[in-house]
TrEMBL record:
GO cellular component: nucleus
Keyword Transferase: yes
Alphabetized InterPro entries for the sequence: N-lys_methylase_SETD6, Rubisco_LSMT_subst-bd, Rubisco_LSMT_subst-bd_sf, SET_dom, SET_dom_sf, SETD3_SETD6_MTase
Domain SET per the UniProt entry, residue ranges: 23-251
Name listed for the protein in its UniProt record: N-lysine methyltransferase SETD6
Record keywords, A-Z: Methyltransferase, S-adenosyl-L-methionine, Transferase
Top-level taxonomy: Eukaryota, Fungi, Dikarya, Basidiomycota, Pucciniomycotina
Length: 433
């Protein structure tokens, strides 16, 4: 979290470099959120809050570093490494234009990269554990960055300042505070909206001083960054009453991703989801699995929407079809429909049960722990809210599936002949009289 003192230094630097902040906003400190901003008077929608000259955005385009390295493409083609290196360089260079901005930013993080193995164990079952990327980040540091730094020891001075700890800090600052800085005259988006796209579009990602002081909360966004040719302007998107916090959007990630990137969760997160991997559907026929993966993803995302995802139902149908059914599907080269028939519903039931069993605690256990949550550390509580949110989605989908007893009875009924059905109705009338 930024400190109040740090923000005062930031504000002086910001104003003396062409930034402007309107008098109707001020910094404020929020328990559990760190610093943020609030309105000092009632604001209408589309009110300008502060304006950031484009020259203050820190990116691979504005940092002078890439221009001083003829072989920059060795680094710029390596995903986030180039942008991280620019931040490291600006942090270390005593004459950096962004020195006071970078110094105002946090040095400690609660994002998952910094959790111990014991703490991470509390997230067992959540697929977020496969997305933390600590080993990959450290692999890039040692195999790409360190040799490059040594090759340019005349520029990267002192070499030992370019430590793994600084690499992690700068990576985490980008993860939790960067924006996609479009050149067009339109609204900006927080760089979290699409990890893969962000990876390929690192060139468009930038650190935006002052805009990154705003917090975000699911369903509460009331401001966004609007792009003008020379400046980025934080602007209200609805009326804000005096005293209310100004919230940007981080593009509404589920709690698991909030925790991974930003180190916090929302108490209620309408964007929570849970992933089911194709492995869990259980199919040993590799030819069939390959056929499926050529056509569909191998991970299916269940949300709080009532319906199961279409690709999940289709995948279950393919992976559980009999050999002859699968041959027919293969011959027609057409994916089965996504209608949840009885047999598929039965299989989905088992899959949801297996998915729930991947967590080390039950919903009931988590709920009672949450009720006594004064005992929990903030990380334990965040992990609890992530896994509980995911399990509740699984349970809600499970509860909406047709009951097996009813469905098998329905199925039997359909198999009965008309005569049998008359007999059955007679029997039922007898039973109920
Ligand atoms: C873009 S920065 C916002 C400024 C930050 N509060 C600070 O003091 O530096 C994002 C960070 O703010 C905190 N944050 C933002 N929204 C939050 C929320 N709804 N609840 C808890 N922490 C939040 C998280 O630590 C997150 O990584």
């Amino acid at each position: 979290m930024a400190t109040y003192e740090g923000l005062k230094v930031l504000l002086d630097w910001f104003k003396s470099n062409g930034g402007s902040v309107q008098p109707h906003v001020e910094f404020a400190s929020y328990p559990d959120m760190g610093c943020g901003m609030r309105a000092t008077s009632n604001l209408r929608s589309e009110t300008e809050l502060f304006s950031i000259p484009r020259s203050l955005v820190l990116s691979v385009h504005t940092s002078p570093l890439p221009k001083s390295l003829p072989d920059w493409s060795e680094i710029s083609t390596q995903g986030w490494v180039g942008l991280i290196l620019c931040l490291m360089y600006e942090q270390i260079d005593p004459a950096s234009h962004w020195k006071r901005y970078l110094n105002s930013m946090p040095t400690c993080f609660d994002s998952l990269m910094f959790w111990s193995d014991d703490e991470l164990r509390e997230l067992q079952g959540s697929s977020v554990l496969d997305k933390i990327g600590r080993e990959e980040a450290e692999g890039s540091y040692y195999s790409i960055l360190v040799p490059y730094l040594s090759k340019h020891a005349d520029i990267f001075k002192p070499l030992e300042a370019y430590s793994l700890a600084l690499y992690h800090r700068c990576g985490s600052l980008i993860l939790s505070r960067s924006f996609h800085v479009s050149n067009q005259d339109d609204s900006a988006s927080d760089a979290s909206d699409d990890d893969d796209a962000a990876y390929h579009e690192v060139e468009t990602v930038g650190m935006v001083p002052m805009a990154d002081v705003l917090n975000a909360k699911s369903g509460s966004a009331n401001a966004c960054l609007v792009y003008h040719p020379d400046a980025l302007v934080m602007t209200t998107t609805k009326e804000i009453a005096a005293g209310e916090q100004i919230f940007n959007t981080y593009n509404d990630p589920p709690n698991a991703d909030l925790l991974r990137r930003y180190g916090h969760v929302d108490e209620v997160n309408l964007n929570d989801n849970v992933e089911i991997s194709a492995d869990l559907i259980g199919c040993k026929d590799l030819e069939r699995v390959d056929w499926l993966l050529d056509r569909l993803d191998d991970v299916y995302t269940l949300t709080q929407a009532e319906d199961l995802p279409e690709d999940f139902i289709t995948a279950v149908k393919i992976l559980t079809a009999s050999k002859s059914e699968f041959r027919k599907i293969q011959k027609a080269d057409d994916l089965p429909d996504d209608v949840l028939d009885e047999a598929t519903a039965m299989r989905v039931r088992e899959i949801l049960q297996m998915r729930l069993a991947q967590y080390s605690s039950t919903i009931e256990e988590d709920e009672s722990l949450l009720a006594s949550s004064t005992m929990l550390t903030s990380r334990s509580r965040a992990a609890l809210l992530v896994r509980l949110g995911e399990k509740r989605i699984l349970a809600a989908h499970f509860a909406r599936l047709p009951m097996p007893e009813l469905s098998s009875r329905e199925g039997n009924k359909r198999a009965l002949s008309r005569k049998d059905q008359r007999e059955e109705r007679k029997r039922q009338r007898r039973d109920s009289s």
